[in-house]
Every structure is written in C-alpha cells, then in structure tokens.
Amino acid sequence: MRSVRTFKTFLAVVQHGSFAAAGHAVGLTPAAIGLQIRSLEEELNQQLFDRAKRSVVLNTAGRKLVPAIQDLVLRHEALAAGTDNDGLSGTVVMGALISALMGSFADALWTIKKQYPRLEVRLLAGQSDDFMRKVEHGQLDGAVVIRSPHALPSNLIWTPLYREPMVLIAPRHPHFNLSADPIEMLRNSPFIRFDRTTWTGYLVSEVLRQCHVNPTDAMELNSFEAIMEIVRQGFGIAIVPKLANVDWSSDRGLMIIPLPCVVLERDVGLLERTSHLRTGFTDAIKQYFIDHKKQPGQEALDQRGNEQS
C-alpha cells in the first residue's frame, strides 16, 4: 500500500506538470519523483501520465484517480491536525481570476483567514475556462470564476456570489479625438479589447452587440490591469467590469462611463464539484456573500433606480 507521501507526490506532479517542478515543490530530486510515480503506476498496474521530454500530462486513468487521492490526503491531514475535516483547517487549493482578487473575493478571503487561522489557502491566478477543467479533474478544490457562457459538466456546480456592471473606460488625456457620446466613442475610437477567447471576452463581445457597435480593435489583451494602464495613457478605450476594490473615483487618468444601451453585468461565482471534502471552506465563502448582500456596483444600480423613479 502506498504511503501518503507518495500520494502527495502524485498530486504535486499533477499540479506542477513536470517531475522537476514537483520535486522543487516537495523537496525531492526529479529522479526520486519519477521513481515514486513509476512505483505507484506498477502497483496500480496502469500508466497515469503521458510523458514528454520536459513535461508530464495526466491521462484518463490518472484524471479518474485525482479526486480519490485528494480525499485520502485531506483525511490524513485532518487526522494529523487532530481536527474534524470541516474544510476550515489544513490546505485548500483555490483558483481565482486576478480581477476577483482585485474585487470582493479578496475581502471574503481575508475575513475567513482571520476567522480560521489554521486554514492555509493556496491561490492560483488564471482564466475561468482553464479553472473549470482543473476543478472538474480535482486539481483545485474550487475557483472563483464568472458565469460560463456554456453548460457546465454534470459534476460541477456554480453558485453566484456578486455582480459587476460593465462600464466603458476612456482616457482623460487621449491621443485621439474623443467624442462626448459613449456610442460614438465606441464607433470611432481605438478599442482595447479583452481576449475574446475567454469568458469575459465573450461578455465584452455581447456588450458591443447590445450597443450595435463594431469597434476598431487596436489591441487585444488578457489582463484588465494592462488594459486599464493602456487606456490611462491615452491610447484607446475599453469595456471592463467595474471591479469592487478599485478606487475609480480618484483615478486621474480614467473616465468611467456607464453604457445606457447595456443590461449585461458580469456575474462572479464559486465553481466547485458537486461532492468534495472542502465544502466547509466553500460554504464559508458563500456565506460571506450572503452576509454582505451589498454587491459591487449595487450603489450605481440603486442610483439608476432612484433616477428612474
């Protein structure tokens, strides 16, 4: 029977994608990592990884084993800590959009960490579609992602946490002629687009469709920070979600312009498997947003409603 250490090595290879990187993470040589994985494969009588020169990739058999091995490791950690495995002690591995870390999720995480000091949260930054695969295969306990434009696999569940209005940002000191009308801005100004292959990029495209505008793309990026800086420097305009923890009102380089033609908002939520051992933590995240019902952008929505009434 394999030791828990071997199972941890297996999970390290899954997470890091190579024997060398996994060895660096757990303090073993790549050769030692390879020996443990080969020994595990021999005991199970099946190959778990497809090997290349510089990387290893889980095959179908390996992907099926990830959730069960994760559960074994988590149960062992809970026993070693002398606590019940309620998901609020030990290590949780979460994915989060960089923009979520700039938004309300950062507040939720900080609050829960203060409440449960024995909890260690490992965060991986990335894109929603990539996180979906990692959550499904058990590489992540959960992920904060936007609502998928496609149907989710049956073993995944997405719970909405908060909403962010989509807004137009424009430079206060542009290097081009900038109309005062937001629709004319979109039609005539260089447009800095968020990567359209991502879920948020799909949402930006939907906003443009609702505005009946086909802008002139000047650049396409997958970082809101980079987009905001390029706009701030006067080289274009962009459509972005109004992130909660950004001090928009004091930004001397950007103008934040509501889009009257748009009813879409970016829904941010928690993606997890329908059954897993870290529900204590994911439930705590969801409870935080239930307890803090004032959502990002809600003030703008309230103001809009007051103006209409």
Task: Find the count of extended strands (DSSP E, 2+ residues).
Answer: 11
Number of helices in the DSSP assignment: 12
- Report the structural category: alpha/beta
The CATH topology annotation of the largest domain reads as D-Maltodextrin-Binding Protein, domain 2
CATH architecture of the largest domain: 3-Layer(aba) Sandwich
CATH class of the largest domain: Alpha Beta
Structural shape: elongated
What does the main sheet amount to? 7 strands, mixed
Report Rg.
Answer: 23 Å
Number of domains: 2
Structure commentary:
The chain contains 12 helices and 11 strands. It is elongated. The longest helix is centred in the N-terminal third of the chain and has 22 residues, at 60-81. It is of the alpha/beta class. Helix 2 (19-26) crosses helix 3. Strands 3, 4, 5, 6, 9, 10 and 11 form a 7-stranded mixed sheet that branches. Strands 1-2 form a two-stranded antiparallel ribbon. The protein has a two-stranded parallel ribbon with strand order 7-8. 44% of the residues lie in helices and 23% in strands. The protein has 2 domains: 1-64, Arc Repressor Mutant, subunit A; 86-298, D-Maltodextrin-Binding Protein, domain 2. The model is unreliable at 295-309 (pLDDT under 50). It has helices spanning 4-16, 19-26, 30-44, 60-81, 98-101, 104-115, 128-136, 182-188, 199-210, 224-232, 279-291, 298-308, and strands at 49-51, 56-58, 90-97, 119-126, 142-146, 156-171, 190-194, 216-221, 238-241, 254-257, 265-273.
